[in-house]
# Entry
Amino acid sequence: MFLGGNWKMNLTPSESEVLAKELLDFFREPLKVKVCVFPEFTALERVSKILKSSPIYLGAQNVAYEDKGAFTGEVSPNSLIELGVEYVIIGHSERRHLFKEDNKLLNKKVSKALDKNLKVIYCVGETLEEREKGDTFKVIQTQLEEGLKDVPLSSENLIIAYEPVWAIGTGRAATPEIAQEVHAFIKKVLGNNFLVIYGGSVKPSNAKSLIAQKDIDGFLVGGASLKAKDFFDIYKAMVGE
Ligand code: PEP
# Structure
C-alpha cells in the first residue's frame, strides 16, 4: 500500500519545515505502508533534510521531460534526485486542466522520470461532465494508453492514482463503490500487479470505507495531508489501527 501527501502550493519552505517536523512525531519506524510527501519545489531541500533519517519518502509534484537546457521555469529530474526525491507526481488533474498538460506531454515526462529511476505516480481521472456523459472508462483508458505509451511499465516504478476531477478539493469523495469500479478497470487495463491509489477528498472519516475495497491500494491526499494528525489518522485507517 502507498500513502501520498500532496501539499500542492499551500506551504512556504518554513511552513513546510514545521509540517515535516510534526510528521516525525507521528510516523515512526516501522511503517506498514509506504508514506511519501510532495512539498513545493522550493521546500524540497529543507524537507529532505528533516525526513532524511525517517521512514517517510520525499516526492515532487512535477518534473521536466529533459535533463537540462533552455526550459525556463522547469525543474530537472537531476536536481530532484540531488535533493533526495524518489517519487514524482505526473499528470495531476491540476496540471492537466489549469496548465493544459496533455497525454502526449505527460508521456514524455513519464518516460524521462522512469529513465532516471524516479518512481512515478501517474494520475488519471474524469471530469464531472465526462462521467455524466458515460465516458469515464474511455477517458481513463486514453489517459493510460497515451500517457504510458512505449514506457517500460513495471509495478516497481509506477503507481496509478485514480483522482476523479470532481472529487479533488471539493469535499465530495467518490463513493467506495465508484472508486472500486474504476480501480478494477485500471487493473484490467494494466494488470493486477500495479498499485492503484485513490485521490479526491480523502479524510480520516472516509479512509476506512475506501481502503476496504478490494482494488484500492492506498491514497493520494491533498487537503488532509496538510495536518499531520489527519494524515496520520488516514494512515491508521489504512493499517486498521
Ligand atoms: C490531490 O491533490 O491529489 C487531492 C486528491 O486533493 P484533495 O485530497 O484535497 O481532494
Notes: The first strand starts at residue 2 and ends at 6.
